[in-house]
């Protein structure tokens, strides 16, 4: 994108020698607009989840025999953001795994405490199913992730771990300098 000054308008008004802040935004690539609209949509979906979340800023989905828990707590989102900043080759998915010494498919998802935080990249939302299945997450729960995590694989980085009840927990990693409006904190 680039910005052009409205010089013609200033010339017509006899103000060509004055600098005005009157500028017109010109989009070079329509794809940039499309990507921005997708990001806005993912952020809007996340905002809706926040508005509908419990007082604890969580959303639970009963899926088959298990539960998918979305952790939308600001302090956890910030912590995951700090973790992502410290990863040398960050992907768009963070995983709390038992080991960092083996191939990703040879470890399992675990609790955050004492976990090896691993990063991986997925191209599209549906790719998360195979990643999670390889980490011992049941297929129906893994498929639920692809339905309930807005922006996954495209616009928003997500972190996954097990919580103490064994529920798969997903937490978005967003730029906390942007406001995603939800329940009052």
Q: Kindly, what is the distance between the CA atoms of the first and last residues, rounded to a whole number of angstroms?
A: 36 Å
- Give the number of DSSP strands: 8
Total of DSSP H or I helical runs spanning 4+ residues: 5
Assess the beta-strand content as a share of residues: 15-25%
Outline the biggest β-sheet: 6 strands, mixed
Tell me, what's the shape?
globular
Q: Which sequence of SSEs, written as H and E, runs from N to C?
A: EHEHEEHEEHHEE
Helical content, roughly? 25-40%
The helix-and-strand class reads alpha/beta
| Overall pLDDT | 78
Spans where pLDDT lies below 50 across 5 or more residues: 1-28, 177-185
Q: How much is the radius of gyration in Å?
A: 21 Å
- Give the spatial strand order of the biggest sheet: 3-4-8-7-5-6
